[in-house]
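Re: folding output
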Amino acid sequence: MRRGSNLPAVGTYNQTLVLDLIRRSPEGISRIELAARTGLSAQTLSNVARRLVAEGWVREGTPVVSGPGKPRTPLQLDPAARCAVGIHLDPAVETVVVVDLLGHVVAQTERTPRPDATRDQIVADLVGTVESLLVEGGRSRASVLGIGVAAPGPLDAEAGILFEPPLLPPIWHDLALGPLLHEATGLPTTVEKDVVAAMVGELWRDAAQELQDSIFVYYGAGVGVGLAVDGTPIRGRTGNAGDVAHLVVEPNGPMCGCGQRGCLGAAIAPERLLVDGGVIDGAEPVAAPALRERLRELASRAGGGDERAAAAVRRAGSSLARAVVQINNLLDADVVVVGGPLWTLLSASASSALSDAVAASTETATVRGIRVLESALATDAAAAGAACLVLDAAMTPRPTDLMIAGTAG
């Protein structure tokens, strides 16, 4: 458990620490309980609580009588006090959300990407969508903590620059999206790899803390994984962890662009499912923005008793299971969450095949079995996760923030 400090120099850390504990106590938590859990003096805790109430982050609940003495007044987070914006860029769909302080989506929209847009139009479209959603969600501009952007890698998260995401049109390559959105909106903007953002979103909503060590499998126009160890998302040295598209899951499967056969990305590529399921003949490629409608058709056929379509979806679930087992053998997480904009369309038919194949695997090294869960955020996983990056930066205490930066002599 993190402990606070009574030194004035770390007042911001103490405030964040107390705010985080209040957030994790849906029924509220009293000042006495907070003092006991943080190690802060009664005076310091009282000052922090008073400031949080005055700034609107926290409200006082109904006093609770639990014995002799003064009733305890629980402090509760006010979810509507602030909000954050999340943007997810997937070649198949762009999703923009506004979330409250608990990570609940209060406004959301999806749109088909414009392959012919210029860079100026890309930024203008995103800014216009953000402004419209804030109005729709009844949130003032002053309440917005910032914007989080989830995008396919490779990218420079620190600089907010997309490099050459293989599934996005060339207009997105070397795009300094973070700085451009910040300049256009005046709001702090964070750019993160989509699978990392999705993992952050799941952790933020994980009140029971079941996902402290877990794997998030993202399935959109591409496939990737987000990883969490001890409640911390794994970003990697350059922020681009999570590429698993070239794990071989079908040794005699389709040829991949890398030269191997049966890579995960090729094995469960949406285009392959559509061909195998009889939705398209494969003579003409399907543009990424059209994938959702075609996959809806595939899912409808599979659910309606079309055995060819159902077999294609089940095979995708089984192929994904082989990757899940390999990744879990490396991480020993034992909890796998699956989500993303295209998985949501196929989960009714594919999830049982995935779970059954994971359970039946003879390759798993875990001693407890692997739990496969559906994402709590479904289609909005990466967009909500991007918004939660903003919440996480504002509301999660980090001991590294206490370090004193030196200056060169």
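--- second protein (sequence, then structure) ---
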Amino acid sequence: MSLTIEDLQGIAKIEKDRQEGFEHHIHVCVAAGCLSCQSALVKEAFEKEVNRRGIENWCQVKGVGCLGLCAAGPLIFVQPQGEYYQGVSVADVGEILDSLGAVPISRLDCSVYAPFFARQHKIVLENCGKIDPERIEDYIAEGGYEALFTAIRLMTPQEVIEQIIISGLRGRGGAGYPTGLKWTTVAKATSRPKFIVCNADEGDPGAFMDRSVLESDPHRVIEGMAIAGYAVGASRAYIYVRAEYPLAVKRLRTAIAQAERLGVLGNNIFNTTFQFGVEIRLGAGAFVCGEETALIASIEGRHGRPRPRPPYPAEFGIG
């Protein structure tokens, strides 16, 4: 039996009710930056101390994606106080738990950065720091996979493309190519089969946009690819990510397995004829494979070398 919208909403309600059952929430950043500063040990210490004190029913400890201030890690966010703490160590765990509902700990306070964060309006990264990237239920509780249901059950492929055109969405690379135009070109292509390719290979020094979203909100990438697949008539997809991102790869694999198990990937998605599968291809770190034709060659098992264009990948891609 395929997943229904009622099933999806039921999962979201159960998860929201579970979250609301806790009086306090301690979000520990478990993205790459903070993990390199031993945040995993901090999270483990919180869990052990919460259990030792017998307060696990009213204090939730959760690993979350990037909290946005990697240089100050390990970072934690405490709710409902709304306190960000920086440079947290295992030795600080007891003091932080003692301060819940009381006076914040000034020496760990991050409020100096509050004006910087207040000016931000997160869109792609809106779930980062809020959800556990390894739990599909957390993503669904934030409205995850409802857009996929709306697209494949309530809209035609052309209507989906028109929405993308109206949105003004563009590629996040240097060219800023209009996404709606690219999807239109692929939809009009007559060759079969069609593939969706996610270019998550970033070789520029210090560029971690792809890594951040893959580590912190992998289901968002998967859902977006599935919507694109429906819009252009593709049933298979590849995520090309460099092997130097082991955490992103691990969480992607977990997310794909969860999505397949739930039925938002695979056959007859939401009781329709639409089917969609996602595979991961690992890159060896070649800078040139960030270029789309070289990337496609690498996915096909050939040397990652760019080829002249036209034809463009939207018309002649994976062979």
